[in-house]
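Fold sample X.
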Amino acid sequence: MKHVNVALFVVHKGCPHTCSFCNQRSITGVSHELEPGDVHKAVETAVASLDAGAAAAGEIAFFGGSFTMIEREYMISLLEAAHKYVREGLFKGIRISTRPDGINGEICDILEKYGVSAVELGAQSMDNRVLELNERGHTAEQVEAAFDLLRSRGFETGLQMMTGLYGSSDESDMETALKIRDMRPDTVRIYPTVVLKNTKLDALMQSGEFVPKGIEETVELCARIIPLFNEAGIRIIRVGLHSGGNVEDERTGGAYHPALRELCDGRIYLDAALRELDGRPAGKYSLAVAKGCVSKMTGQKKKNLFHLKDLGYECNVFQDDELNEYEVRVR
């Protein structure tokens, strides 16, 4: 069965705050207001790509802004447009993203009525000091309360976190990751901070008050965070902002790379290989990794193999179907 998702962006709608990092136009590349007709057009285009009689088995997703905090009639008009295709069995459900303070019992009733199956909350941090400094307008306790309510109502629930925010540290980011892991969401997204034009973070960076983390230190941190979620069985949907939109043109600093997840996976495998090779004499070795993970072990442009060679370990990599992801064994 072909898996087709349709992503739709509701640009900076419903947000009661302008967070320090936010410029939705730059992130999405969209500036016009989404209308029900746009929903029908996007979904019909996706359905047309399917073979006759096939079901998409995917989701219609509304991202950007804070979906449950937009004007009520407008929100329902978008949901009605998408729900038509869920009722017809072409899609399994609707996914939305919103703020923790945009969830209550009444909202859950509406979401259930119109076929919403998954809700992602922009937690960003579980440190109240970091949330306040970045003008989020909600607390970590509100994240937990919204999450618990969604779970009790049967929604698939995701949490989104950011690393490298103004006022944060590696320690506070790790603490956020640990708290999110312990909440056991179905999914997570990890968004290292990218500084965009016309944001508070850009002004803070220009003044020297905020120094954003670069790619290397971000990869190092995320290589510690990703295994936490992986080992807990929490699906990581995304690491880093999507390429496209206006991010490349609007970015003024921070950790943006179109293949950030690939870099992080490569670092995780390099660290695992170094642990396995620790104490062994220089020489030639074979490294076994899980199915489909050979390229992750070799690293982007064979970066990991060159690094190991510089340390005296000349390695080749092969696949072992009995190993799990991120496991490395020396043969």
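Fold sample Y, listed below.
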Amino acid sequence: MNNPLMQTIEALAKEKGIEPEVIISAIEDAVLTASKKRYKNEVLRTRFNQETGHVELYAVKHIVSEVADPATEISITEAQQVAGDEAEVDMEIEFPKSTEELGRIAAQTAKQVIFQKVREAEREHIFAEYNQRIGEVVTASVKRFENGDIVSEIGRIESVLPRKEQSRAESYAPGDRVRAVIKSVSRSAKGPQIILSRTDPALLIKLFEQEVPEIYDGTVVIKGAVREAGDRAKVAVYSRERDVDPVGACVGMKGTRVQSIIRELRGEKIDIVEWSDDSVLFVTNALSPAKVQRVSIVDDHERVMEVIVEDKQLSLAIGKKGQNVRLAAKLTGWRIDIKSEEEKRREVEAQLLGLEVGAPADADEGATPEATVASGESEAGSDAGDTGRQPSDEQ
């Protein structure tokens, strides 16, 4: 049966989430540190006796042919008298030392060392645990605010939701519960620093995994997610089974599944689009809810596409402050140049006019400025479309 000290050690280990051996090692180190102040010139070793609950202290001496330092060395002759014929040169021999003489100051030193070692072990355990949980969604309780950062607790572990990782659509008060994704874990002087995020796309992906059984079981796969937290997000989904509609599975009956996620993200609009390995089709889908007339690849190497939409669809395709096309470009990995049919018609007319007006000898010289102007008109048209009423505010 364990002695009372061993029971205390096991209880403390369970409370701190560390192994009992870590605390035993800390106790051995503590007694060793305290003993070195009493026995200054000797080589010491400590060993915890689990049966008695005492830390045994030993002076260690090295067996040599000729003794140079009596405090750390012992002659082979003397060693054989103590330990028998088994003693040989270069071996070590241990001599028990009393710990009763260590006194009150040594006991205080031992207590400090134990406390420090246990705290270090606890911090290392927390760091290792949460470092493996990066990308996981957790529920934290808001404690206080520091320069715009929210200091919260996951269980009894302190975490931080920095200002830059907070959605501008949200505000909290002490005691509120907040769901966030673990973005990173770092070591600091105060212990492990757990950084949470409400803006990371990983939060959106995890929320979909929790709400959509088809994503959780792997039938539907999220191929990508991009966000402008608090405003809008786009998620690309793909179905591994032909008879399962990936977009419909994520939206849910009468939109129940996606509405649950929108509520969690405080009204952030979410576009769910079907992923395709056909880049043109994927870009077309990604610009949803705008309807695209045609798409052409301008530069495959630089990944540039030109997208033509109806005149009345231009502002919807571009989105509020360019948000729709910006998110679509981020989701697909393509640079998207959006033009209305009217813009494209004027651009083609300008190019044709340049070819007709230019003399055969200097046709090339005349074509370049016209192309540049057409590009400028395109940009102006995009800006004009962007400053009008934005239907993209409505899903």
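Sample Y note: The longest helix spans residues 103-131.
Also: The chain has a mean pLDDT of 84.
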